[in-house]
Each structure stands twice: as C-alpha cells, then as structure tokens.
Amino acid sequence: MLRSVLAIPDVYELFGQAIGVPAFRRVFSSEYIRPKRTERILDIGCGPGSMVPYLEGAEYVGFDMSASYIAAARKRFGDRATFVCERVSKQTLDAPGAYDVVVASAILHHLDDAEATKLFELAAQALKPGGRLVTLDCAYVPEQTKLARWIVSMDRGQHVRPPDGYAAFARRVFRDVKVDVRHDLLRIPYTHIFLECTNPIESS
Ligand SMILES: C[S@@+](CC[C@H](N)C(=O)[O-])C[C@H]1O[C@@H](n2cnc3c(N)ncnc32)[C@H](O)[C@@H]1O
C-alpha cells in the first residue's frame, strides 16, 4: 500500500518530509555532492526533481523512467532545470564528457545487476576528466539494528545490497571509489551507503 502511494509525487514528498528527508538532502549535498555554482550536474533517477533546490546555481539535467515524476519535476522546476523521461538502459547522453558531477540518489537499489552496471558506465561516459559520480542508497550491514534492517527491507527497491555489493559495480568502471556508511541521517532507524567515484584525469 505505502509502496504504491509513494509513486504519487506529492505523497513521496510529504512522506520524505515526515521522516526528515529535507535535512538529509542538505547533508547529501554539502558533504557528498559539494556542488559549485555553474557546474553541470546530471541526476540519474531524479524522481520529482527533489535535489534541485539543494544544487543552487548548477546547470542541472535530470532523467527518470516515471512519467508522473518527470511531469511533477517539470511543473516545479522546469524554469531552471531540464528533465527527460527515460530508463537507465535506454538513456543516450545529451553531452558525453561534459558533466562535473553525476548524482544517483536512491536509484541503484531499484536496478538489477545489468542496469546497475549500465548506470556506472553511463556516469563514466557523462563525466569530465576528474568529475565525480556520487550515489546514495539504503543498505544491509551486519551492525544495523533489527528495526533499521526491517525498514530497509520494506523499500520499493528490489535490489538492496550490502556496501560491497554496490561498490563492486563501481570498481568495475572506476578506479577511485570511496565508500561511506551512515546510520544517523533520518528520524527513523535507517542505513545509508554513499559512494564517491572519481573519473581519472587523463594525462596528456
Ligand atoms: C526512490 S526514488 C529516488 C528519486 C530521487 N532521486 C530522490 O532522491 O528523491 C527512485 C527513482 O528511480 C527511478 N527509477 C527506477 N528504475 C529506473 C530505471 N531503470 N531508469 C530510470 N529511472 C529509474 C524511479 O522512477 C524513481 O524516481
């Protein structure tokens, strides 16, 4: 029931507000994305565009397979961002090698192994030399509380993995992968994993 109503953009936002997602997004932006004004940012699985207010000044392109989320994103932020309705497996890049940062926020745990691999390949192609892919997802870790594990297991995503499960995909494509696990970012018991993957700077 909760899973299906979360597909409604306004319900998704309200549920997020109730569990502390706005404060969480501020941390995600300031500690992990660290956006700079005028940077080009690609958001894969952008949902209703919820990260746009936390990436002030950036040139933002988001894509997502959900037509209702993309319609909501365009309605809210269409004057300052570009949104495309597309699946990860089908997405062709508008501008290869042109993005400073690629964001994949809460999408990898929705993707099977083939699409997760595709996401990392897409991100590497989209990034400038030295650009970064930043991902966040829920995860199973041995030290999390039973309640956190249960809440994570209720997620709509059918591919929640342990940290190494996510990082293994990243390391097939990126040499420089940092992993961070946090348990303190929502008002409910929950476990997040962040990956920061840096594209190599080509030597001339
Ligand atoms: C939990 S939501 C996260 C939305 C947004 N990134 C956020 O942080 O609020 C997961 C999103 O991934 C999208 N998604 C799932 N599978 C996808 C796929 N194969 N291609 C593109 N988008 C996908 C869903 O439509 C949904 O908007």
Describe the structure.
The protein is an alpha/beta fold and 204 residues long. It has a single domain (2-198), classed as 3-Layer(aba) Sandwich (Rossmann fold). The chain is 35% helix and 24% strand. The chain has 7 helices and 7 strands, in the order αααββαββαβααββ. Strands 3-2-1-4-5-7-6 form a 7-stranded mixed β-sheet, with helices on both faces. The model has no long low-confidence stretch (mean pLDDT 93). S-adenosylmethionine (SAM) binds at residues 45-47, 50, 64-66, 69, 87-88, 105-107, 110-111, 115.
Please supply descriptive tags for the structure shown above.
204 residues; alpha/beta; 7 helices; 7 strands
CATH superfamily (homologous) name: Vaccinia Virus protein VP39
Please provide the count of β strands: 7
Associated small molecules: S-adenosylmethionine
Number of domains: 1
How do the strands line up in the largest sheet? Answer: 3-2-1-4-5-7-6
Helix content: 25-40%
Please summarize the sheet with the most strands. 7 strands, mixed
Tally of individual helices: 7
Rg measurement, Å:
16 Å
What distance separates the N and C termini?
55 Å
CA-based shape = globular
What is the residue-mean pLDDT, rounded to a whole number? 93
User: Which fold name corresponds to the CATH topology?
Assistant: Rossmann fold
Unreliable spans: none
